[in-house]
Write a structure and sequence with these properties.
Layout (H helix, E strand, L loop, with lengths): L1 E6 L1 H8 L4 E14 L6 E8 L3 H5 L3 E4 L15 E4 L1 H8 L9 E4 L2 E9 L10 E4 L9 E8 L5 H18 L15 H8 L1 H34 L9 H7 L6 E2 L9 E2 L22
Parallel strand pairs: 3-8, 5-7
Antiparallel strand pairs: 1-9, 2-3, 2-9, 4-7, 5-8, 6-7, 10-11
Length: about 280
């Protein structure tokens, strides 16, 4: 699947009938104003050849999608599909929107459906059927689907012949001296965001490593506290408990220092002074 720019419906039909091409759809985006509401709202309108949803294999969420019958003679009928997000935002998800009319730049369109939430092609708010006009400089973006088994070099060679002929027909064509390069849709999208994806992946790895180190340090500290010896041969347990039963060995916790045991009369191995830490009373 790749893309190129075409003008005029005749070139579109020639491209569709190329030996290596399975199907083609056209796209032309523009900004419009939703003038049927209380306040004018800027929306992205996508004009597409009427085979868009058949090409994509996308069913409607509500209503129906447009078909070639919605563009008789290459002229788009005044019908529209709403994107799921636009439908939620502007119509609060009202399912009765199908059959109603909206006004774009003071032109009425009948809403025939709503596309699903996962279909966001072109970040389009409103999808309408259309075809290129007779103006040779009315360029539309075309997306090609190659036939199964067709190799990219063979398809590029065939398409190069068509491109060269198209540019000869228009002396102002911006594609002069261009070479056909077939790029899959995944390659184009991933290539556009490759730098961002690499940075995001690196940040995730760094965060995981940091969390693992924190977890490891926490486990080591807990083990040291749990295995610290409370007893000491240099202190007479009976004398200590009889002289002052409230005096006992102190064990540092995660709140105190988290790494060693402490007993009266000496500092812990970590060097933290825990003489004022809360005492833990141990049975004698």
């Amino acid at each position: 699947m790749g893309r190129c720019y075409l003008s005029m419906a005749l070139k579109y039909e020639e491209l569709r009938h190329a030996a290596s091409v399975d199907d083609v759809f056209l796209q032309n985006q523009r900004l419009a104003t939703l003038t049927s509401g209380q306040f004018p709202i800027s929306v992205t309108v996508g004009e597409y050849s009427p085979n868009l949803f058949v090409y994509m294999g996308v069913p409607p969420f509500l209503g129906r999608v447009f078909t070639p019958s919605d563009a008789p003679g290459g002229k788009g009928a005044p019908v529209a599909l709403l994107s799921y997000l636009f439908w939620q935002k502007q119509f609060a998800g009202n399912r009765d929107v199908v059959g109603k009319t909206i006004e774009l730049d003071h032109k009425l369109y009948t809403v025939i459906g709503v596309v699903g939430p996962r279909f966001t092609w072109g970040d389009t708010d409103v999808y309408v059927p259309g075809m290129p006009s007779g103006d040779p400089h009315d360029y539309w973006m075309s997306f090609l689907k190659l036939k199964p088994g067709v190799k990219h070099p063979a398809a590029a060679a065939e398409l190069q012949v068509l491109l060269d002929r198209f540019t000869r027909d228009d002396t102002r064509d911006f594609r002069r001296e261009r070479r056909v390069a077939i790029v899959t849709l995944n390659e184009e999208i991933l290539g556009r965001f490759s730098g961002t994806l690499v940075l995001l992946f690196g940040a995730v790895i760094a965060l995981l490593v940091h969390r693992m180190r924190q977890r490891f340090d926490s486990l080591v500290g807990s083990r040291n506290c749990a295995t610290a010896r409370v007893g000491s041969s240099s202190i007479d347990r009976s004398q200590s408990s009889s002289a002052n039963p409230a005096i006992a060995y102190r064990i540092c916790s995660a709140v105190d220092c988290g790494c060693c045991a402490w007993s009266p009369g000496r500092l812990p191995r970590c060097g933290n002074d825990l003489r004022h830490a809360p005492a833990v009373l141990l049975p004698s």
